Protein: cyclic-guanylate-specific phosphodiesterase
Amino acid sequence: RAKENGRNTYCFFTSEMQRYHARHLLLENALRRAIENNELSLVYQPQYSLQQQKLTGFEALLRWQHPELGLISPGEFIPLAERSGLVIPLGEWVLKTALAERASWQQLTPAPLTVAINLSPIQFRQPGLLTLIDSLLHASQLPAEMLELEITESAMVEDPAHAASLLDAFRQRGLRIAVDDFGTGYSSLSYLKRFALHKLKIDQSFVRDLLSDADDRAIVQAIISMAHSLELDTIAEGVETAAQQALLQQLGCQAIQGYHYGKPLPAEQARAFIQQQLQT
Ligand code: C2E
Ligand code: MG
Ligand code: MG
Ligand code: MG
Structure:
């Protein structure tokens, strides 16, 4: 019987693993052609300053609509793109598209709206990144201050010397740097004083139960107070209710992003959102 069980277990795992690999292979091959097939798009989620009480910019978030597989979440395809190296051409497409969209907002408003894009740690290590950003910024004719790069703690701690010099080069150009998902990494906090950063994005996992969980409130409070001392801006992610917004404001958080203020919007709707916000 043991033998039988063993064989069943073995069969079960192989079929599960085959399904898992099949899905990965399918997605990876499809992703290879996603750019040329026009299956990618960006949605833009508005960011709101609690201090200035106004729209200050948008985060660009990647969407992949496959003709047969439907909408695939970045949570599934970004890790895949990172493993296969596809995140390099994908990331280039994101930068180019987001900057072109941001440039088109110049005709809507003189407001210094920022566009934030997510940089994968793989992109961060790519030797040509700075040259790429320089040439795309030049082509867009936008001031560098309008582009914000979101990086995670892990991108910085892997090779601190490289990170420090790259972040210095970004700062010299006037680019803005935000630490995404702040508080979820395992790194020491010493990088906060060592690296040229502008903003901490308080991870949504601390915001979710902010009203009911005293520990989450203590953590958010500590992040805000530390950011303040280090002269870094703070923005809370995943703000879904007016009550969360009010508490964050009370705690001294500078800005919010989340479904409460606005969901991620296709480019055309983001333009309408800008116009509507400027009128009120
Ligand atoms: P992230 O950069 O931390 O983005 C925030 C995620 O939270 C987004 O998920 C956004 O749609 C979602 N979100 C925003 N407001 C709320 C809210 O009020 N409640 C909840 N529950 N969620 C909210 P999304 O778009 O699925 O992206 C997931 C992750 O995929 C991003 O996390 C980012 O790490 C990655 N990603 C997205 N676009 C890109 C990209 O262009 N390049 C790279 N390298 N990564 C990307
Ligand atoms: Mg982000
Ligand atoms: Mg985040
Ligand atoms: Mg995240």
User: Anything to note?
Assistant: Residues 131 and 154 are 23 Å apart (CA to CA). The first helix runs from residue 2 to 32. The first strand starts at residue 40 and ends at 49. The two ends are 74 Å apart (CA to CA).
